[in-house]
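ingest -> validate -> predict -> emit
validate: passed (alphabet ok, no gaps, 105 aa)
predict: started
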Amino acid sequence: MNYISVIDHEQNEVKVDAPPGDTLMEILRDNLFDVAATCSGAGTCGTCHLHVDEAWFGLLPQKDCYEEDTLRDSFHYSATQSRLACQITFDESLSGIRVSLVNSN
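emit:
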């Protein structure tokens, strides 16, 4: 089973099924986590901002300049953990990835 571990806003950790080919944003949204994703995955709003566990961060594709600009405007920006869930496509190599939801305000 492919899965992601999600730490929600109340610090509860939940494992959810993760279908390959979906973005982390889609997986979070489909599992009813509080992710606004108001730009529908275009990477411009920052409402799917999450923190990736540092052990996994280096395994992800590099951020492009647009994602970096969006993240730097966030109050909870972390150079070593912040990513936009809409910009990460899940595949089997990411099974078990641990992410924390970030308040968008």
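The chain has one domain: 3-101.
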